[in-house]
Amino acid sequence: MLENPRARLLSSSPYKQGTVVYHMCRDIRAHDNDALLYAQKLAHGKQAHLVVVYTIWNYEWLGGTQRFYDWVIPSLKEVEVTLRAHNIPLIVHVEHRRTPAYTYMETLSDVGAVVVDQIPLSFMSRWKSAFQKKYPTTPLYEVDAHNVVPVWEASSKQEFTAHAFRRKLHEKITLFVDDYSTLHKQAASLHHAPVDWQAIETNLVCRKDVSGVGSYMPGEQAAHAQLKDFFKHKLSSYEESRNAIDKDGQSNLSPYISHGNISRRRIVLELCKHLKPHQHPSQTIREIISADHNGSNGARGSAASFVEECVVRAEVAENFCFYNPDYATYEGFPSWAKETLTKARNDKREYLYTRAEFEGATTHDDIWNAAQMQMVTSGKMHGYLRMYWAKKILEWSPSPEEAMKTAVYLNDTYELDGRDSNGYVGCAWSIGGVHDRPWFGRPVFGAIRFMARSGVEKRGKIDTYIHTWLSDKHTSHD
Ligand code: FAD
Fold it and tell me: What average pLDDT does the chain have?
């Protein structure tokens, strides 16, 4: 059963019989989930049981924070309710060790196949190889439930520019905006006790000092409500407002997309329905991507620009992490960037800060401090400021290696949408020229694109922004 281009068999033998386990990881949703639907189809063909497993890595996994679980646990609770209504048990399995023990495999007597989410990050590669070592004869499938065009279909290699990736993605996207099939009620259900959320929440091991999801409501239903609100109130002005720091012009969908509460394919399908309710989405998406970004029609420009961010930019980030194992470090930067940064290595830094000073938002620059505090307090920094924020970390760190480490650490610790390919590539774009081109040389940056404070000041009422996020901090302009 491999005619589905979103699925890959990772082991040598395919599924024959026995319980099918869907090991949910980043795509925390019950509907519109290709991995779950694929697992259900496998099970259905053999009238087998279907079980969904989610693992809580109960140590400070990837710097795991209470904020991460404040999003994940309510999302999972919602998934559990929907799955139960479909006769599908959810098992939340708690791992205490870095080397996964897969103890749930022993509690299920007759596992015939395991289906996992495609995640292009190193922890998932380790997870998959450890699983295959321990269970070499259990068929393991990987399904890309996250991207519109599955990462292995979009391109067979690392793409060095967004331009080259865009061309390939635009050629294929119309084939991949088909609607989802429906999750069916399982005829036979394995008996399994409801998840003991209280025990899980009480025993969570994570950084407790970073918590709360700000004004967001996690989960699938909230994701759909957020999308509707975006179409109703912001889509038509998205192109001109998304970079305005004093406007709430972005969709604020990233925490939902990142945790898989909604898929990018669902977002594209709804966008197409919203724009042309009576036309097939594949035709509408064709029109959107061929629309002139600079045209006078605001809505068409905005739709194209939203698709550019939500699909092209996000999926080129997946491409980078999928094909480049050094996605989160200096080593992953393109050679031209490493050369130019090496030449600039000994350039005098006007300011130098430690990680603790960055983390505490105590730099001399009140815009930077405000952006940092927006992230720490609300869990989401404005998109335009993320570029400025990361570039200044390069400017004020002793080396580009350290700058990248600091940016990734802060991004993964505080952003609700952190630990995501977009985050690694956002930092690598800003600090290491990934998917960018060489610019004019200047101290510290070499040929990496520079961003000046004056550029940010043109993006809206900066004093209001600073005041909002720095009410009790006193710093001066640089
Ligand atoms: P919108 O503008 O409404 O965009 C809709 C969706 O498009 C986003 O949710 C996201 O999935 C995608 N998108 C938008 N901009 C980009 C982009 N530049 N690259 C890739 N995809 C994009 N995004 C994350 O999801 N997680 C991160 O941890 C993250 N860290 C970043 C760090 C830095 C230094 C930089 C420069 C960018 C980072 N981004 C990250 C990308 C981008 O800033 C956010 O996706 C965006 O601000 C999220 O807000 P939104 O959903 O309201 O965006």
Answer: 93
